[in-house]
């Protein structure tokens, strides 16, 4: 790399959606001849992609900006916290530019202004699948931005706006490029995956001489033909999700649904303005498991929401056990600036929230341990994520990267990340498995 190659550093905070934004920004910059620096010292300018979801995430973002200013001095801020420009500028008057989420062009423009691109006809070509920050064998596939729901604890629609779906042919073309580049697992993400295409009235698009509707089922079916693992995140239990379950039973799409239920009590769900009803949801999950017995469900829940009574919380505990929720993420309720839930009566004292959090985690751990015990003795597919001198670590079809459990295969140090191997489960703990190659 010549010494005068303009170089950017990036600090990417927040959710997988923000990570995809960072990848798009880097892809564009690489195509203009910028190099990417892994540290502050080597960068001419540093981009901080922030998260503004919870107050704690905002604090973390502000700290990251402060560190980048101290370490490098030339900082461009973007992402969800970017909508609070004055807050950022009050604290860090030296930042070069502040933009909100998915304003790729503006970020690239700010970088161009801070460090002009070098004109070089021999700059490296950007790989056609773009640049990714995830390991080569899996990739996030973002199918839409924004959200039409108005959950009272959430400010994402205020930050990211209403649902904007990417037409089906574009998503499929991107997925195909990723697969050609060696990706073995596609993680479908959005704010509300099951609402995909509503804004486009399920528009029909041409893809490979076929007509494909911009619709959750149609997209799932097409992705299922690519011959790689396809994992669905942020799905709501709407009736039409039923159609996708047979694709899971047929092995086209992974038998895994990430459904952020957030609660189970009708009172709390109503106060949260969630698009779901626990009774019907339980029935629906049972039907899904009749069709696809291997289905794993991951969910997140909030405890200590304003107005949550002991009874409400008990019904949440029952739901997690009755619905056999395989993987649970639990959050303590936190008021978020600008959220409607801040005005709700019945604040739950911190110590009660804490007790409920511990009780839910314990109940969830019991369910997870019992579910994993049933896998012992079974032969399963494992995708390898990492290998070291002790052996290989991977995941099952029931585990998403970063958030779920893993499978350890001892002594197998000649496997390669991205390999998909058959293994027999020999041991299960609360969250993880141990297996031997079959
Ligand atoms: S579904 Fe609710 S929690 Fe999720 S992004 Fe939309 S408004 Fe926020």
From TrEMBL:
It holds the Pfam family Radical_SAM. Keywords: 4Fe-4S, Cytoplasm, Iron, Iron-sulfur, Metal-binding, Ribonucleoprotein, Ribosomal protein, S-adenosyl-L-methionine, Transferase. [4Fe-4S] cluster 2 binds at residues 147, 151, 154. Residues 6-116 form the MTTase N-terminal domain. Binds 2 [4Fe-4S] clusters. One cluster is coordinated with 3 cysteines and an exchangeable S-adenosyl-L-methionine. InterPro entries: Elp3/MiaA/NifB-like_rSAM, Methylthiotransferase, Methylthiotransferase_CS, Methylthiotransferase_N, Methylthiotransferase_N_sf, NA-bd_OB-fold, Ribosomal_uS12_MeSTrfase_RimO, rSAM. It is an enzyme of class 2 (transferase). Catalyzes the methylthiolation of an aspartic acid residue of ribosomal protein uS12. This is Ribosomal protein uS12 methylthiotransferase RimO. The lineage of its organism: Bacteria, Pseudomonadati, Pseudomonadota, Alphaproteobacteria, Hyphomicrobiales. The gene is rimO.
